Amino acid sequence: MAVSPVLSPKPNPPGTKATTNASKAKALAILNHSRSVSSPIAPSAATTPGDGGQDLAEQMNDEVRRQFVSGSRLGEGTYAIVYRGHFRSDPSKLVAIKKMKLNAEFKDGITLDSIREMRHLCELDHPNIIKLYAVFTTKDQNISLVLEHLPRGDLEGLWKDHSIMYGGADIKSWSNMLCQAVWFCHESRVLHRDIKGNNLLIAADNTLKLADFGLARGFADPGRPMTSNVITRFYRPPELLLGSQHYGGCVDIWSTACVIAELALRDFFLPSETDLAQLSVITDVFGIPTETDWPGISSLRHWEVNFKSAAPKRPQPLSFWRQRLPLLGDDGIDLLRGMMAMDPAKRLSAEQVLKHAYWTNYPRPTKKEDLPRQGDGEKKMGEDLKRAGGELESGRTDKVARKLNFG
Amino acid sequence: MKLTEDDLYRRSSQYKHWCFTPSKLALLRQKTNIQASERVKANVARQRAQRAKNLDTTSASDSERANTPGVENGADGASGNGGAVGDKEVDCLTVAEEMRLVDKFCETALELGNFIKVPAEVTATTIQYLRRFYLYNSPMTYEGQNIARATMFIACKTEGWHIPSSDYAAKFANVTQEQVLAPEHLIIQALRFNLEVRHPFRGLKGAHVELGEMVKGTYVPLEWDKRTGTQIQSEILKLPKRAGGAPMNLSESDFRKRLEYDYGVASNILKTSAQLTDTYFHYTPSQIMLAAHLLADEPLTLFLLATKVPPPSPIYSKTVDTIRACAAKLSSHRSYTDSSTSLEDKEARDKKEKAEVLAIIKKLRQCRDPDKMDLVKLNEAHKRDAVHDGELDERKAKRRRLDRENAQKEADEFWGPELPKNGAK
């Protein structure tokens, strides 16, 4: 008997002890059966009791991983590598596999970006939000997100590409898809906090999809502070630039309006070189609000430095808007100004935005299938998905935003 | 154009992946238990076999993994009776015993949360992660203390309370950063990468605010409800304190005190009993919230519900039944009866509880999976496998570099070295 364990592959030599639970015994027998080949001496069998020595969770993970086939590399950035892939069961169904890199600088395990993106995309299922099909880990403990394949580039690429012509009805169509995505996020109590042209990807059927939830978070309970250092600078609303730590969906609405204006302008709407300059670019258009325009503004953290002794500035008149954004029409301009009210409390909510007359007025938004489109945008998708949030296209990275701890 | 709570909940990962009927839940736990027991037995047997072999051949080969924690507890490793004692079958934990342990881990997590002072929802998320984790893993495989600490660290990250792992580890005695981080992948994988947990806390706050409006007379009833705000106010002030009690007529300010009291009781139930039972697996956050409120103040909760669903509707009675069932589950936990139990009874009960859990922990020592004892080493081994690939690449790169340098050298020998640039000597 002393040698029997060496020879017997079974951990449970028959006859040593009667198993008490009948159903359990049956299950054990099945497991034993499937394991009869392995030998405890071979090193490979050390963790191989039939199930490959795997936890149930590992088995599930492998099942998920096997559903997808990874193909050529589409792009690589500091935080992720993006591969083209497809469903094993249906090779015509394409996916983008975003493999998150382990960040050497971040000493605390899985990065907060990955965590935020996983947490929120798992919950958000909407035609205008990038779909997360699955998540799995590879052997080297890298998390891979299996995302919708969106091969037609991004919105910023679209307005930058001057070979493409588009008009007011097309802008209305894209803007509407964007606003629906934002509305859905807010209804689901999620703040995106990084809405901008190159986070808006375009699917093969021309549907616009909001992507990159690396800076997203749930709505905070009233009174609990959040970081004001989010959203790529050009799209950052004045209250964040003034250091507000309590905010809601209104910050995304500002960014959304910037994107719509960009589409109509075919240029950045409020570009600047520094955070300080950003505030003055904004006030050049919207004026410097007084305590009457925006009750509570003077209690914001950075108000004193920026506005206390600044010379008064008046907002631009309607003629300025008509001249700059003729493609939007008066109703479009009215919507945009509602979305860009300096006082966040006066800004339109996502729901109010969708109820605005602009959407139903003439011209009707272009049907999806008739929208102008870019040629090969697959590479662009790779570029966009690998990028970290808060980064500008030109590579001027807003590094500060990344390094802070997002509350 | 509003999404209802129900629409949102049905799209959530909590509903899709973490909602079970009681029988399904039991089956899953049984499956996990069988698999873990199997593995413990297999691994212990393998170890014993190895030990017996080592005894035979005196000089064990180096290739064999010396991963045998059973050996050092000299008791049964004494040379004379090596194999014979080893043949005794491992007595594994039952599902019920595992559940007692998981409950214990969750209680510990509750204390842990208080100890490191994180907000209640971080602790609650930790506990729900733990409960989810142990649906697919057994305490025999992964021991609770390390897992609970690592899980709380993850919950801090997901709930936006990130603390650097070094600071986090420093809050405990003898805990390293590696110990906190090592099981991270293991845990997140078992959570199926679903990091969002929907809690009933915010719902309770909402109900509290709304009840306050009703008491003030400023509540605006739903469309089908033909009562005015003032009517609702006079009705609510007359509500009896207990089900079946005599109608009262409290003043607005007294009723406000009642609301505060109810909120406190319900909130406490949500932070304890709701976490320490299986309620999240069976009920929606709003059902749990209403059940806790029902336990705090039944007439008021039913009144609130009747402003949302007309009582003649079959949905009303169905909802009440569900809430009652949930309330029964919540009140079955011993933390619920704490306030109404006499001190001696409580002490006796806690003592018994403690003794039982200790007995299970003692039993656990005999049936731990020897392969999964040291999570830090396990994680390093995982990473080593992965880094291995990288090393190969590095070697390749080095060879290419040497080739390139050699080619350069050969070219130099043939053509002579590069000529000095203009101006240089």
TrEMBL record, chain A:
Keywords recorded for this protein, A-Z: ATP-binding, Kinase, Nucleotide-binding, Serine/threonine-protein kinase, Transferase
GO cellular component term, pick one: cytoplasm
Renumbered residue ranges of the record's region Disordered: 1-20, 36-56, 364-407
Biased composition, class Basic and acidic residues, residue ranges: 366-401
GO molecular function terms listed in the Swiss-Prot or TrEMBL record: ATP binding; cyclin-dependent protein serine/threonine kinase activity; RNA polymerase II CTD heptapeptide repeat kinase activity
Catalytic activity: L-seryl-[protein] + ATP = O-phospho-L-seryl-[protein] + ADP + H(+); L-threonyl-[protein] + ATP = O-phospho-L-threonyl-[protein] + ADP + H(+)
Highest taxon listed in the record's lineage: Eukaryota
Annotated Polar residues bias: 36-47
Annotated ranges, domain Protein kinase: 68-359
Nuclease found in the keyword field: no
GO biological process, one term: positive regulation of transcription by RNA polymerase II
Transmembrane helix as UniProt keyword: no
Binding positions (ATP): K99
Assigned protein family: Belongs to the protein kinase superfamily. CMGC Ser/Thr protein kinase family. CDC2/CDKX subfamily.
Protein name: Kinase-like protein
Provenance organism: Lentithecium fluviatile CBS 122367
From TrEMBL, chain B:
CDD domains reported for this sequence: CYCLIN_CCNH_rpt1, CYCLIN_CCNH_rpt2
Alphabetical keyword list: Cyclin
Domain (Cyclin C-terminal): residue spans on this chain: 199-328
InterPro entries for the chain: Cyclin-like_sf, Cyclin/Ssn8, Cyclin_C_2, Cyclin_N
Region of interest (Disordered), ranges: 39-82, 381-425
Keyword match Metal-binding: no
Single biological process term from Gene Ontology: regulation of transcription by RNA polymerase II
Gene Ontology MF annotations: cyclin-dependent protein serine/threonine kinase regulator activity
Domain (Cyclin N-terminal) ranges: 111-195
Biased composition (Basic and acidic residues): 381-412
UniProt-recorded name of the protein: RNA polymerase II holoenzyme cyclin-like subunit
